[in-house]
Specification:
Mean pLDDT: 96
Strand order of the largest sheet: 1-2-11-10-8-9
Distance between the termini: 57 Å
Bound molecules: 6-O-phosphono-beta-D-fructofuranose
Helix content: 40-55%
Structural class: alpha/beta
CATH topology of the largest domain: Rossmann fold
């Protein structure tokens, strides 16, 4: 791709902008703030504070055409095996269609019946056990929609294999009143299975082996394994090979979210995603929010060489959104070879990080304003809060607008270099009416398709994650050594060997 005329044209264009300050771009065009924006379904994307012009957007659109983005979107949404290394489709968009495939519809009906029962009072608490895509999505969305939760049931998320997580999470729970939902596409993830086994023993100790099974449900593409674990077939919900873990929030992986907010709100969440799917499929690039986000991502990563970007939601309920986007983006885009196995030859996935405003302002914004690295920012905000503390919300949003303004324009007029604000630091603002199931669904699909847009330009497969496998294999071997089930690997490096030896010598079980 970097050898194409379109890429070269963008490189030359970038040179022409090298010394142009955002102040100058805004001076040149007084309507820039309105012109460099796009809107759909109540979401406004203001990308005017990026270091680009309308011409950049045109050139990026030409790059998208050169990469065949429209065709790739059709390929993904029509079920072609776009996940080439695993020879599978990536059909997460089918989960949220108005007319989903029969197996999806059937599962949604089963989920709704199960969720309604759970909400009707049999359980005080529901604990989702899963990790990665089987945790981050439902945990993020359940927190995000806390204002829409209309049940007494306390929904929690257990992910880390660290026993401290299990202990802290179950500390104040009554095992007799707790339902565990074990979410694992493969049902082989060691962390999840360790937590599930501990949960089962904890429940069985309180209610007896015989009744323990009724405290468990599962969501998996490997139902045989779930049933082997002792979970009734009637409480096993399907995932499919054709939905990737980090793209699976619209499937039964969202069961705990559905329990928290109810089936109707879950349907609105799916409708929000579907709105963006259709928008992504049909809107011109210059008006297409996910495509624009992705193309600006390419512009910042490849033409300006900025290696990270921050996602800063000015909404406390979205506290887990940066972590969710971190997996979505970094597990999808952290690749060095193209789909054909050849090196990309250009930079791919940036490091994604962030936390909610205004907290971050008192932590890392110093570096954003005056550091030597430029960090593009996505600011996310809402016009109406889900609470009645209007004064707080005005203050919160004033801070969002102020940060974007300060980053872009800085401040002139001081001779003291320590107090100088250079500005010219890019950001994008995504402003929605209110955080609702619908708008949350829009945000999730927006970033999914942003990632897809970037992957298409880079020519990489965003739907596999081979890079996580080696660590899993090594951890399994080392775990066997730690427990004495296996002898130390003779060829192990001296650092790992001596760390293991020290650990084995010093490890002491701590009494509960
Ligand atoms: O971290 C690797 C990974 O495979 C993720 O892609 C996935 O979301 C997570 O582990 C959990 O996998 P599973 O749902 O199979 O337990």
């Amino acid at each position: 791709m970097y050898r194409t005329d379109e890429w070269q044209a963008l490189s030359a264009h970038r040179q022409s902008l090298a010394d142009v300050h955002l102040r100058e771009l805004f001076d040149r065009d007084p309507d820039r703030g309105e012109l460099l924006g796009a809107e759909t379904g109540g979401l406004l994307l203001d990308y005017s504070k990026n270091r680009l012009t309308a011409e950049t957007v045109e050139l990026l659109g030409a790059l998208a055409d050169r990469a065949g983005l429209a065709g790739r979107i059709e390929a993904m949404m029509s079920g072609e095996a776009v996940n080439t290394t695993e020879n599978r489709p990536a059909l997460h968009t089918a989960l949220r269609r108005g007319d989903p495939p029969p197996e999806v519809r059937e599962e949604l009906v089963r989920m709704a019946a199960f969720a309604e029962k759970a909400r009707a009072g049999r359980w005080n608490s529901v604990v989702n056990i899963g990790i990665g895509g089987s945790d981050l999505g439902p945990a993020m969305a359940t927190a995000a929609l806390c204002a829409h939760a209309d049940t007494e049931v306390d929904v929690r998320f257990l992910s880390n294999v660290d026993g401290a997580h299990f202990q802290a999470l179950t500390n104040d729970l009554d095992p007799a009143q707790t339902l565990f939902i074990v979410v694992s596409k493969t049902f082989t993830t060691t962390e999840t299975l360790a937590n599930a086994r501990t949960a089962r023993a904890w429940v069985a100790e309180a209610v007896g082996e015989h009744d323990a099974s009724s405290h468990f449900a599962a969501v998996t593409a490997n139902p045989g394994k779930a049933q082997g674990f002792g979970i009734d077939a009637g409480a096993v919900f399907a995932m499919w090979d054709w939905v990737g873990g980090r793209y699976s929030l619209g499937s039964a992986v969202g069961l705990s979210l559905m329990i928290a907010v109810g089936p109707d709100a879950f349907a609105e969440f799916l409708a929000g995603m579907h709105h963006i799917d259709e928008h992504f499929r049909t809107a011109r690039w210059a008006e297409n929010l996910p495509a624009l986000l992705g193309l600006i991502g390419i512009w910042n990563r490849n033409f300006w060489d900025w290696p990270t970007y921050a996602v800063l939601p000015y909404a406390q309920e979205l506290a887990l959104f940066p972590a969710y986007i971190q997996q979505l983006d970094m597990e999808s885009s952290g690749k060095s070879v193209r789909t054909d196995g050849t090196p990309t030859g250009i930079a791919t996935g940036p490091v994604v990080w962030g936390q909610p405003g205004t907290n971050g302002q008192h932590a890392f914004h110093q570096l954003l304003h005056q550091g030597t690295d430029i960090v593009p920012v996505d600011f996310i905000g809402f016009c109406r809060p889900n609470h009645g503390l209007a004064e707080h919300h005005d203050l919160l949003m004033a801070n969002l607008f102020a940060q974007a303004e300060a980053l872009a324009f800085g401040a002139a007029g001081t001779d003291d270099p320590h107090r100088a604000f250079p500005g010219n630091r890019p950001s994008t603002v995504i402003l929605a009416d209110q955080l609702t199931p619908q708008s949350l669904g829009q945000f999730v699909a927006l970033y999914e398709h942003k990632v897809f847009t970037q992957a298409t330009i880079w020519g990489i497969n965003p739907f596999d994650q081979w890079g996580v496998e080696l660590g899993k294999t090594l951890a399994t071997a080392i775990a066997a050594e730690l427990t004495g089930a296996a002898t130390p690997h003779p060829a192990r490096d001296s650092s790992t060997r001596s760390l293991i030896n020290r650990y084995v010598t010093l490890r002491r079980p701590v009494a509960r």
